[in-house]
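Q: Convert this sequence to structure tokens.
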Amino acid sequence: MVRLRGGAGWLWLVRAGEALNGPPSGWPIGLNDEEDACRGVALDLSQTDLMSASAAGFIVERIAALRREGRHVWLAGAHPGVEPMMRRTDCKGVLTVLRQDVLQPSVEAALAAAASSYAGAADTAPAVVVPDGGRADGMLVEAGRGPDTGPVLGGGSGTEQEETRSGREMRDRRRKARGRPVVDLAEHVVRGRYGLADDAALELLVATSQRHNMKLRTLAAAVTMVVPPQPGAARWFPGRSRRPAPALSFLEGRPVAKANPSEVLAALLRSALEVAWADMGNAQLADPMTGDLWIEAQQGHSEEFLDYFDYVAGPRPASTDPAGYADADAGAPAVDRSGSHLAAVRGVQVTVLDVPGDTLYDGPGKAVMRGSGSVACHSVPIALPTGELLGMVTGHYRHPAAVGRVLEAGRTLVLDGLAGQAAAWLDWYRRTIVLDALEDLHTRARAVSAGG
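A:
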């Protein structure tokens, strides 16, 4: 779904496959809802070699129906053989009358035609979404911050390095303050479950997280969220079998079973930026308790950007936040006006074509993006097939034409594949490595309790 330039409204972008035998997968539902401000559909037929009469009839019928609603359909990059098939099903001559407006040589031309048709129209409505990638053929295109920091790629020298180090230290303190309620809750759970002294529970949590190369808040969140062990049981997860780590095509120089989330996200980011021809970018992890997105790896961003977008609101309402986590006195609330937030909430890839001219970002957000040199961006959810969001990877561009090439080249499917690999690994990590850490904690806590 494209957010047209100049506040002209929304436009769906649906990609058809090589053979179209019926309604295109991902065709939007609910276009009769006036509140969504959707101006129509751009159907990318550039990869379609075969089209059935049923599919052609559906498209012609939708062109006529949407015209009656004041909306449009643009057919982008249709092969020469597609138009004759559509004409054979066009009993009312819709395509004959509208041919020049409907048929466009490319996706870019379709977007330009849509922008021209609705230039100056106001758009303050929320998005409506088509699933993306392996989930369907649609894609959302929008014209348009975990407790410890991950690796920061790149760098500078002298004063620049000092400023970078100072900014990272400030973000570290803020994240630890936000994570403190969850650690306190886990400490209370462990102390009560095993009958430990006040300091012993925290010492066990810290030592266990260090042994398993795991962030303290990750372990603390698991302690509070995972089903507790049976009272008196020698093992937390009796009979559990460990799954092998899934492959990661983008991780080099380290066995996948020995990596940690920060390393995987940093490697994913490097690969995604190369695929997407992006100038800079960041990868985020979804907090398991709040759903907020925390920057885990970045490349090329300014300190101001990293501070402002330190964490972005996730797809959950604030009322579901456990342990008063969101109320921790630790700085500004999560940003909820950004491309990655929209991608998180809707669960699809989101492209912001024109940050300075779009209403998605507020004034401060636009200023930060402009200061970092980002005028366009593309966000890819790291999600499981069930739709559960585990993170986000975003490329940023100094020139908007570059992100347009990504859409034209169909590289969104490659990005979706990379994100899918990362999601499978992150799911394996929490179901294997995190549970290993919990089992270790359980064994050692029982030993301390028995010795006391």
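The first strand starts at residue 2 and ends at 3.
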